[in-house]
Specification:
Aspartate Aminotransferase, domain 2; about 15% strand; 12 helices; 2 domains; 3-stranded antiparallel β-sheet; about 350 residues; alpha/beta; Aspartate Aminotransferase, domain 1; 7-stranded mixed β-sheet; globular
Length: about 350
């Protein structure tokens, strides 16, 4: 490894933000994205290799049938399956916005969206997190673009906040913009039968299956024309081996299971219990969010709190810059339908011992 890379790694160590791989086997889960416990549902997946990309040897009628079933469930015209949410965002944003277009994205959007935009020939500008006044100012400024795109998330994974769907939809329509929504953390948790926060809104949506659905892969919900465009121009779809059919079928099975179970109600009960035990002044997240972020400006104090919780057998993670901005560093608590009242109370007692 050359000196430049070694210096960057050393800097991380000195700042106390060095990432490392840890195992939390046997700990009480307050850190995973398995909000509804679907990864724990027995559903044996027998993998059969796809043999090639879907444009060569990897496509089957069954795969396209699964995509249609998923699109129908989410009430979309069409769907296109990708290996992961990251691959889906890279593939979409690198090829859909064109030169002369303008993309306005929430400053807290996921790294995969930003990485895709870096590969795009369109110009892109961020607006302040969930700040629709700032968004409208920029929509007015760039209203003469060839095409205006607005990019948001259904639930922001590092803040636990959600956008005002109704007002955002009205604003986008006012300026004739195209709304793109990443529902990675909100699909399965919100909406009728778990269809997502933006169910019924005229927009292009990304559904990922590695969070509440406890499966794998991602699906762009879009028009049939846009699906055909992605098949022809989305490089992360074209130049990769197809997702095995069994993985796609597993995602479909879990989507259907979530729609039929009451885990979403139990999850909301657990969120309400947690928020009743922790002072509101400690929390920055929306009150229905399974992600509850406790921001701490004191990095040493944050590290100590994380260590204390881990020593008490709680699986939690502190979030540092560059994943979030320095002033937004904090402890990320993920709540689940399977967390018991006793576990939530014990966790809360450490977070807020005087409450």
């Amino acid at each position: 490894m050359n000196a430049k890379l070694a210096h960057k790694l050393l800097k991380r160590q000195e700042e106390g933000t060095m990432r490392s791989l840890l195992s939390f086997e046997g700990s009480i889960d307050f850190f995973s994205n398995d909000y509804l416990g679907m990864s724990q549902v027995e559903n044996q997946v027998v993998l059969k290799g796809a043999t090639g990309s879907r444009l060569i040897s990897g496509n089957t009628n069954q795969m396209e049938a699964v995509e249609r079933q998923l699109a129908n469930f989410f009430k979309a015209s069409a769907g296109l399956f990708y290996q992961s949410g990251y691959a889906a965002n890279i593939g979409f944003f690198s090829c859909v916005p064109q030169k002369g277009d303008i993309v306005l994205f929430d400053e807290d959007c996921h790294a995969s969206i930003r990485d895709g935009l870096r590969l795009s020939t369109a110009q892109s500008f961020k607006f302040s997190h969930n700040d629709l006044l700032d968004l409208e100012h920029k929509l007015e400024k760039y209203k003469h673009a060839d095409c205006l795109y607005v990019v948001v998330e259904g639930l922001y994974s590092m803040s636990g906040k959600m956008p005002n769907v109704e007002v955002l939809d009205q604003l986008v329509q006012k300026y004739g913009a195209e709304l793109i929504v990443d529902e990675a953390h909100s699909a399965g948790v919100f909406g009728e039968e778990g269809r997502g926060l933006f169910e019924g809104v005229d927009c292009t949506r990304l559904i990922t299956f590695g969070k509440a659905y406890g499966a794998h892969g991602a699906l762009w919900l879009c028009s049939e024309d846009l699906r055909n465009y992605l098949i022809n121009f989305s490089r992360s779809f074209i130049y990769t081996t197809a997702t095995p059919l069994a993985v796609m079928e597993h995602a479909l099975d879990n989507v259907q299971r979530v729609s039929q179970r009451n885990d979403r109600m139990k999850l909301q009960e657990n969120i309400a219990l947690f928020r009743s035990l922790v002072p509101p002044t400690m929390l920055v997240s929306d009150d229905q969010s399974p992600i509850q972020m406790i921001q701490l400006s004191d990095r040493r104090g944050l590290k100590d709190l994380e260590a204390k919780l881990i020593d008490s057998n709680f699986a939690v993670k502190a979030i540092y810059e560059p994943t979030v901005q320095i002033e937004k560093e904090g402890l990320r608590i993920s709540l689940h339908s399977f967390n018991t009242n006793a576990e939530i109370k014990s966790l809360s007692a450490i977070l807020a011992p005087e409450n």
